[in-house]
Input
Amino acid sequence: MTSFSRVLPQEANALMTHDAFAYVDVRTEQEFEAGHPKGAYNVPLMHMAPGGMVANADYVRVVSNHFDRDAKLIVGCKAGGRSMRAAELLVSAGFVNVMDQRAGFDGVRDGFGEVTEPGWSQAGLPIERGQPAGRNYRDLEKQTPSTA
Output
């Protein structure tokens, strides 16, 4: 199985700026709207549902519709767990240039809530809020042909 690399937030920002990597934020639409890396696309790995989170069965299909298998992609989430799973799914689907951004947007926290590894937001990197046209999940999903 092909693997993926993990990068720090500062490295992810440099790859986006200098090497034309696209950032795919795999957090929920609500999390994305509250703040995300500037220029990020939102394709949630999970959706909020009554009773908790449920898997987004269309995750790989939506990403595949918008990015070629050799596209340079960085995936990120809140603290690093969902993005690792998202990177695994993309690599399994044949994507070859996938990186996982360590520590996510909010950073890794210990059992007391203290940040042990700063995320994108603590690193002072460019942030935007809202649902940018063409990069929010509803727009990306609408542009994706269904498999039914």
Summary: The first strand starts at residue 5 and ends at 7. The mean pLDDT is 95. Helices lie at 9-18, 29-34, 59-66, 81-92, 137-142. The domain at 5-126 is CATH 3.40.250.10 (Oxidized Rhodanese; domain 1).
